[in-house]
Amino acid sequence: MQPNVPDKPGLEGLESRWTATWAEQGTYHFDRSATREQVYSIDTPPPTVSGSLHVGHVFSYTHTDLVARYKRMRGYQVFYPMGWDDNGLPTERRVQNYFGVRCDPSQPYDPDQALPEKPSDKPAQQMPVSRKRFVELCEQLTEDDEKAFEDLWRRLGLSIDWRHTYQTIDEGSRATSQRAFLRNLARGEAYQAEAPTLWDVTFRTAVAQAELEDREQASAYHRVAFYEVNPGDPDDRGAPVWIETTRPELIPACVALVAHPDDERYRPLFGSTVRSPLFDVDLPVMAHRLAEPDKGSGIAMICTFGDVTDVTWWRELSLPTRPIIGWDGRLTRETPDWIASEDGRAAYAELAGKTPHSAKEAIAGLLADNGHIEGDPKPIKHPVKFYEKGDKPLEIVTTRQWYITNGGREDTLREQLLARGSELSWHPDYMRHRYESWVGGLNGDWLISRQRFFGVPIPLWYQLDGDGNSLFDDPIAPDEAALPVDPQADAPPGYSEDQRGVPGGFIGDPDVMDTWATSSLSPQIAGGWERDPDLFDRVYPMDLRPQAHEIIRTWLFSSVVRAHLEFDALPWSDAAISGWILDPDRKKMSKSKGNVVTPMGLLTDHGSDAVRYWAASGRPGTDTAFDIGQMKIGRRLAIKMLNASKFVLGNGATAIGDPEAITNPLDQAMLASVAEVVERATTAFEAYDYTRALEATETFFWTFCDDYLELVKERAYGGRGEAEAASARGALALALSVQLRLFAPFLPFASEEVWSWWQQGSIHRASWPSVDEVRAAAHRADPEVLAAASVTLSALRKVKSERKMSMRSELTSAVVRGPEAEVSRARAAAGDLRAAGRVVGDFDFVANGEGVLAVDVVVPEPTG
Q: Which of 156, 461, 651, 697 has a CB 3.0–4.6 Å from the CB of 716, allowing a cystine?
């Protein structure tokens, strides 16, 4: 093929042209006739569809694409799908604010309901719409977002097969998620329980342990008196027992006081009774190892529930449940029946219906007015648990929820899941410790039910007895062939819709599954589990799970749990973990922090290859700074690739010929160096260390451009005979071919552009270079010949620079001195050094045993 090199190659327009060509030619299509051994399958992270992508997504998804492109060039059929995680709270919140609506399941469905002209993000001002209408709006908005996401991914050059996409809310995903749940239920791995639940009062939904984060909050200790009860005279107020609490508003929910069993101060009180201030409720004093003698006064109140320690005490000490905070995050409006005294009921009436913050202020005043508080509140700062997407501290309320076993309460399962973590190949390896730490620290099973609307429904119904009470212990399940189902719209087997909600009939489970309960099945969804058995057998278990390190505890762990319970195996063999993108202050970039950079402008300003270059510079698992400077370097590299390739092809180096024609020692040494680069880059990629592969490739490329091209320029043009020219051109053509393929995963647009000038087909379907194909032409040459020639050429340039001479100036003579081995290597390139350095007279090489090569020159005498 005769090369077709443009006169002025440039990067402009490459993305649109090659993206269209790749789509038209099916360059990245997966061949599903390949056997499992011929397939490399990727469990691509489905990005959350709730607005826009940011530069952190570009960073981590580029890493995955680097591996996909490498594996494709290694001869694998790469299964590289794309999913969209479009169900869950982020989507609901975006729809609420975007359209100015809120879901009210009691509203009738109206498909033509007009939406607010001026949407409000304040819930009180948002229009109530039916659940069905709300779900339709969610689907409408996510469809628009997904199109924008796909456009950006294509612009970035992700080599995804766009025929294989899914949504975590589409029919196939819903069926897969419900099927897995029903099988968990049949095996006893899914169960329902009424228990204390972490509760987000804004979203009014349960929250799982994996979705928590601690946030430092200002608070204050209040020193409050409880009173010993005299058994002989219960009406007599005994001695005060001082507790210190940051949550005095929970005194009405107190069920006991607790101290450490070894705390001598309180041993006499164990087994006795105290009375709560204001509310006159008698409470036992108990001992438990979790009480902290050096915290506050050393004795604490147990409330139902103030924090997770309260839950532990409540469970292990078999205490009663006295909740006062409702699903709306306010103290219940009805006075609890355990508060019996007239004064106590009057005091509670002052708190009823208030938020915890307002109730805290009110009860502090009541306690002070009645002499139950000592001193002023003592300000502190302490960590408080929040839902990771929430704005208010979590409360703990008692609700009926669905759980899946995950080893949090079963040591045998915990050990099995830890063993799965050891089986998995982690990149980098130290990330396995995060997994092990998380599994080892679990204190409960996985709560999967959510009290929301846009999600995969819990696929169950409950019979109603003759009085209309739900029989939760005997749920009605659908046949798998009927999946997916919506119990709020579909009747269960054996019932008709007119029996919904009536005695002797049924009700549907109103909840949906946590988004992780569906995302945890992404390998099964993408691979077609039970939907496309032929595809599933070719791609599952998958090869790679790429993801960020902060969701090891959520997405990775939950995926391991589901695969272990269903298949008794891992869902993939390898996990490649990306770090965060940090802003200039070294803080994580995130939407919630408001410090994100949207990527489309970067791709437009610097080019996709340049942005990919920056992303590839971030080592696996390592947090990386957002750096425009690196993108500029990447752009210069891509431009250099075009220009250097034009030079090589313009010299007639257009065909990779007979290796035996490459006879010049410098050409052979250069190719020996190329072989070493191929070996290092291949080894790095096999270890998922794409950064090291790029470093090896780029470092040599600049030596190739700055030194080798200058050294062989005259010879390649034919200045020293046809045999020498043939050697140079053959070496140049082979080196260019290899380097373009090494760069192809990183700079897919520029490398494809150059490849198209002189080769058939796409470079991304070409073979990854092998060490053998290069070494055959290197003839076991010493790669240090090129290094010695580069050092000598640099010294010649330095002399001219120091003397303010043009690089094209001639030198009368030159002498190269240094250790014998180094001088011998430089002498092997003497002809090319003479031409590149423009040495017109004697050019001698002298071994003197000293440590480094040095050059002495004589310059022409000035004339005139």
A: 651
Q: What is the pLDDT of residue 864?
A: 44
Q: 606: which 2 tokens?
A: 């610097």
Distance from C-alpha of 761 to C-alpha of 599, rounded to nearest angstrom: 30
Q: In terms of Cα–Cα distance, which of 214, 562, 607 is closest to 388? A: 214
Q: Helices in 255-351 by DSSP H: which ranges?
A: 308-316, 342-349
pLDDT digits (tens, 9 = 90+) for 489-545: 899 999 999 999 999 999 999 999 999 999 999 999 999 999 999 999 999 999 999
The SS3 of residue 196 is strand
Encode pLDDT of 130-141 as tens digits.
888 988 898 888
What is the number of other CB atoms lying within 10 angstroms of the CB of residue 432? 18
Q: Which residues does 571 contact at the CB level (< 8 Å), separation at least 6?
A: 43, 523, 524, 540, 541, 542, 545, 559, 560, 562, 563
How far apart CA 611 and CA 630 sit, in angstroms, is: 8
Give 734: exposed, middle or buried? Use CB within 10 Å, 0-12, 13-18, 19+: buried
List of residues 6+ apart from 591 with CB closer than 8 A:
51, 54
Using alpha carbons, list the distances in angstroms from residue 509 to 2, 279, 400, 459, 599. 69, 38, 11, 7, 41
Task: Name residue 462's beta-bridge partners.
Answer: 507
Burial class (CB in 10 A: 0-12, 13-18, 19+), 446: buried
Strands 299-303 and 254-259: antiparallel
Place of tokens 């996401």: 149
Q: Which residue has the tokens 């509760």?
A: 199
Determine the average pLDDT of the residues in 164-188: 96
Which whole-number Å values give the CA distances from 473 to 178, 192, 400, 460, 613, in the listed order?
19, 8, 12, 12, 57
Residue pair 277/226 in contact by the 8 Å Cβ criterion: yes
Whole-angstrom Cα distance, residue 664 to residue 711?
A: 12
Q: Are 53 and 599 in contact (CB under 8 A)?
A: yes
Q: Output 158 or 719, whichever has higher pLDDT.
A: 158
- How far apart, in whole angstroms, are the C-alpha atoms of residue 524 and residue 181? 13
Side-chain half-sphere exposure of 820, counting CA atoms within 13 A: 1
- What pLDDT shows up at residue 107? 87
Token pair 């599954």 is found at 513
Question: Rounded to an integer, what distance in angstroms lies between the CA atom of residue 412 and that of residue 88?
Answer: 32
For residue 422, count CB atoms less than 10 angstroms from its CB and return exposed for 0-12, middle for 13-18, buried for 19 or more. Answer: exposed
Please, which residues have CB within 8 angstroms of residue 834's CB and are 6 or more apart in sequence?
A: 843
- Number of residues assigned to the chain: 864
SS3 state of residue 6? coil
Residue 579, beta-bridge partner list: none
Does pLDDT of 311 surpass 60? Answer: yes
For residue 656, the Cα-to-chain-centroid distance in whole angstroms is 43
Distances (CA, A) of 654 to 133, 449, 647, 651, 733: 63, 63, 11, 8, 6
Strand (E) positions, 414-538? 425-427, 446-447, 449-450, 461-463, 506-508, 512-513
H or E element: which one contains 191? strand 190-200
Cβ burial, residue 450 (10 Å; 0-12/13-18/19+): buried
Angle between helices 411-423 and 432-440 (to 10 degrees): 180
Beta bridge partners of 450: 512
- Cα-based distances in Å from 77 to 34, 305, 497, 760, 805: 7, 54, 49, 20, 56
Q: Coil, helix or strand for 827? A: helix
Tell me how crowded residue 11 is: count the other CB atoms within 10 A of its CB: 20
